[in-house]
Design brief:
By secondary structure, the chain is an all-alpha fold. The chain is built from 49 helices and no strands. Helix 1 runs parallel beside helix 3 and helix 46 crosses helix 47.
């Protein structure tokens, strides 16, 4: 059979032509041969030519521009030329702007606009704005799309004029660009389009992307008169606004409250429910969320009925709904089948009135439902269910029996001890094990003899359950039994004893047994002996632990390093420093954690070096340790890690910066706002109200553009503190229009008396029309 060649495997001909491209590029001049190869039939060859011409920069720009102007007979050549100009290191912007200012044919203007958009050329904003009114629709659309690529509100006035016009082909792309612009001036023209059936769907979708909370009432109003398709789009947009408002200001109340006006909610509930069938999964989630925001009995009943249509979306919405759903949930639980109960039980919590609402589910034929019922009873906290739960311990399904044990342990009650002791004396091995686990968990003194008997058993499961309980008992007999078990021929028993001896008080007999465990033939015994001796702070075991750093078993090496990190002795610290440079990554990470916990100044250089490791896990542990140190070196390392390629490292570094009061930490977090990958996490961290944080944010606001100002003001709003809100109000008096617009939007979301007073002053006095508009919308009921 003939095998298809992978598209990633180059033919001999392609390799030869790519080598020729590389050779021609060495001349540093775009030879006619190199330009001609833009039309190569091979995609791989064209990619190589594009990269070579882009690297040549200014030397290649004029000839590439000539391709756009004069060699338009080949689509592959044109596309490659556009790619090369878009990626060029030279001044392609100037050449393309020259074309836009000429009488070039429309297709050429479209290509030039595309290049400038892809290069995000701010200097092209005016020229592209003018071309949005070009007689040729293709040129106008290309200019609109280019302005969208440039972003940051580029050409906003021209785009507003487009959507206020009557050209169908231009309005649609302009709607999309306005929605993504992040500029509050986009809001009013998009809201106006909601009244036009031709554009309402796209306008509603775009309004969701704006993140402007003041769009919520208008979108919510559409739900009373929209089609199924529009209802779905409106729901998705409202969810986007809700999520963005929650991220920005720490509250989504302004969006959710838009669904709870004075009008009868039933028509909206019916419209939302009717639109669920046939909706995409994303739309179903959005529709159910909007139903939950209505927060009344009819919405709850509707969500329960939707469990059959979209189980996950309806369940999540019911969980968020609140007490309004209690009566409907209980009724549905009582009358529902196993499938329905499995969806409803996870939604029940302490809000439910009593265990009696759930206990019937313990007799459900489906074991999964019985497990979920046990879990729900544990959450409800009604001890009246305990006798019924004990009867479940005899269940043949081990998952049900385990769930019953966990519920009993969570609930507890005066009656639990007697029932547990009785169960632990059962002749049924399953019941006996379950009873012992409960006795051990609560550490009942009356169960000591039962635990001792089980610890001497040959049944591993009985012994393991009892040893845990013996470790919690301050009784000589319990201690003697553990020491006896430390010499058991069974390595599993010895390992359990080593672990238990570290949980009690330090005494010579226990320490002696644990030291002996360091030489045990079983690796897990050595592991738990190391752990326990470290917890007990036994310095006499240091010499033996030092040898275990080179133990054949990896878990023992790690345990030895972790134990040494707990012991304040020179030889232990020397070993930690050596382990921090070990080849074994697990040992190295354990040593780094130990050094960080000790906060020794002389250990910081090793931690800073480890923060630059090629291994993400090592970098993560290193910055976790560095975060415990004061000083500029630690802040600088965390700031560097905040831009790490690994998301877990980035998030951890930003989180550590959040708790630091140094001005440099605030500056590092502000710098993270410029990166889309770190912006949301940085806003969340800036909202941590440590000393000096508000002053640092206020300082950064003075020169901020709209996007940065929006993030900074959001951080202040999320603090939910009077001094932070005062800083937002103060920002409304700055001379920076962008900052005042962001501050007005935040105050509109906060809606406190202080916020409303500030907005009222802005409506009367602010010199910027957009600030006045935002403030007025924020004062609406």
């Amino acid at each position: 059979m003939t095998q298809l060649q992978s598209p990633l495997v180059l033919s001999q001909s392609d390799r030869e032509r790519i080598a020729e491209v590389d050779k021609l590029a060495l001349s540093r001049e775009p030879t006619p041969s190199l330009i001609a190869m833009l039309a190569a039939r091979s995609w791989a060859v064209r990619r190589a030519v594009v990269a070579a011409l882009a690297r040549l920069g200014d030397a290649a720009v004029p000839q590439l521009a000539q391709v756009l102007l004069q060699q338009r007979d080949d689509e592959d050549r044109l596309a490659a030329a556009v790619d090369a100009l878009s990626a060029s290191r030279g001044d392609a912007n100037g050449a393309m702007l020259e074309i836009l200012g000429s009488e070039a044919p429309s297709p050429v203007l479209c290509d030039a606009a595309q290049v400038l958009g892809r290069r995000r050329s701010r200097q092209a904003e005016d020229a592209l704005s003018r071309l949005t009114a070009h007689p040729d629709d293709n040129v106008a659309v290309a200019s609109i799309e280019a302005l969208g690529r440039i972003g940051d509100g580029a050409g906003i006035e021209a785009l507003v004029q487009v959507v206020r016009g009557k050209n169908f082909f231009r309005i649609f792309p302009a709607i999309d660009v306005l929605g993504r612009s992040g500029d509050p001036r986009a809001l009013e023209p998009l809201l106006a389009l909601l009244e036009n059936p031709r554009y309402a769907v796209e306008a509603a979708r775009a309004l969701g992307r704006t993140g402007e909370v003041t769009a919520a009432p208008s979108l919510a109003g559409l739900l009373r008169k929209s089609s199924d398709a529009l209802t779905r789009v409106v729901a998705v947009s409202l969810n986007a606004l809700q999520a963005r408002t929650l991220d920005r200001y720490g509250t989504a109340a302004p969006v959710e409250n838009a669904l709870r006006g004075g009008q009868d909610p039933l028509p909206v509930i019916q419209r939302l429910a009717q639109s669920v069938a046939g909706a995409t999964p994303e739309e179903q989630v959005a529709l159910c969320n909007v139903l939950a925001w209505i927060r009344d009995a009819a919405a709850a009943a509707t969500l329960i009925s939707l469990l059959d249509v979209t189980p996950s979306a309806a369940s999540a919405a019911l969980r968020a709904l609140g007490r309004e759903s209690d009566p409907q949930l209980v009724a549905a639980l009582r009358d529902g089948d196993s499938s329905r109960r499995s969806l409803l039980l996870p939604l029940l919590s302490g809000r439910t009135r009593s265990a009696a609402d759930v206990e019937p589910c313990l007799d459900d034929p489906d074991p999964t439902v019985r497990v979920l019922a046990c879990n729900a009873l544990a959450r409800i906290g009604d001890a009246a269910a305990i006798p019924r739960l004990f009867r479940l311990l005899a269940e043949p399904d081990p998952m049900v029996a385990q769930a019953a044990v966990s519920a009993i342990q969570s609930l507890g009650s005066p009656a639990t001890e007697e029932l547990a002791l009785r169960t632990a004396r059962s002749s049924d091995p399953r019941l006996k094990r379950a009873g012992l686990r409960i006795v051990a968990y609560f550490g009942y003194p009356a169960g000591l003899d039962l635990l001792v008997e089980a610890a001497r058993s040959d049944d591993d499961r009985l012994r393991d359950a009892s040893i845990h309980g013996l470790a919690l008992m301050d009784e000589p007999k319990a201690q003697r039994t553990l020491l006896e078990t430390a010499g058991n021929p069974n390595p599993r028993a010895r390992a359990a004893a080593m672990r238990a001896l570290g949980q009690g008080a330090s005494n010579q007999d226990a320490l002696s047994a644990l030291r002996d465990g360091l030489s045990d033939a079983d690796a897990w015994v050595r592991y738990y002996a190391c752990q326990s001796l470290g917890k007990l702070g036994d310095k006499q075991a240091i010499s033996k632990m030092l040898s275990l750093v080179r133990d054949p078993a990896g878990q023992v090496r790690v345990a030895a390093v972790e134990a040494l990190a707990r012991l304040d002795a020179p030889e232990a610290l020397t070993s930690l420093r050596l382990a921090a440079a070990a080849d074994d990554p697990d040992v190295q990470r354990a040593a780094l954690l130990g050094l960080g916990a000790r906060k020794l100044p002389e250990a910081l250089p090793a931690l800073l070096q480890a923060a630059l490791s090629l291994d993400p896990a090592t970098r993560l542990i290193a910055i976790s340790a560095v975060a415990a140190y004061p000083g500029p070196d630690a802040v600088a390392a965390l700031g560097n890690a905040a831009n790490d390629v690994e998301v877990t490292v980035r998030d951890a570094a930003i989180g550590f910066l959040a708790a630091r009061p140094e001005p440099s930490a605030t500056s590092a977090l502000v710098a993270c706002l410029a990166n889309p990958l770190t912006r949301d996490r940085a806003v969340e961290s800036l909202a941590t109200p440590v000393e000096g944080r508000i002053a640092g944010i206020a300082s950064a606001l003075e020169t901020a553009g709209y996007e940065l100002a929006t993030s900074l003001v959001a951080a202040l709003a999320r603090m939910k503190r009077a001094d932070a809100l005062a800083a937002v109000v103060d920002a409304l008096a700055l001379g920076n229009n962008d900052v005042r617009r962001a501050a007005a939007a935040a105050l509109a979301a906060v809606r406190s008396p202080q916020a409303r007073a500030a907005l009222s002053r802005a409506v009367d006095d602010d010199p910027d029309e957009e600030v006045r508009r935002i403030a007025l919308a924020g004062l609406a009921p």
